[in-house]
Design a protein that fits this description.
This protein is an alpha+beta fold. It has four helices and three strands; from the N terminus they run H-E-H-H-E-E-H. It has a single domain, classed as Orthogonal Bundle (Arc Repressor Mutant, subunit A).
Length: 111
Amino acid sequence: MGSQMTEMLKGTLEGIVLAVLAGRSAYGYEITARLRDQGFSDLVEGTVYALLVRIEQRGFVDVEKVPSEKGPPRKVYSLNARGREQLEEFWRTWSFLAGRIEQLHNHEGKE
């Protein structure tokens, strides 16, 4: 990913992770793997884990410790009501911004 993509992703990653969790609960590595499958191939696991700590602290997810066959229990994250509200706000904001950016792009050089 180029530096511009990295910067844009920083501003939207919370909403992207909340959207992943809206589909179903998941643990950190699973979220990273899903995002990589969606084309976010350069996404670093540590970035996702740091974000999960923040959204947990902000009360957007419920966390359950689930036993793991390969070591310590995994923290499984589930989107809760507050997280769903945050996700709805993210989509409203995204739609507004995407619409304005598309307008700018379509009018570029036409004035």
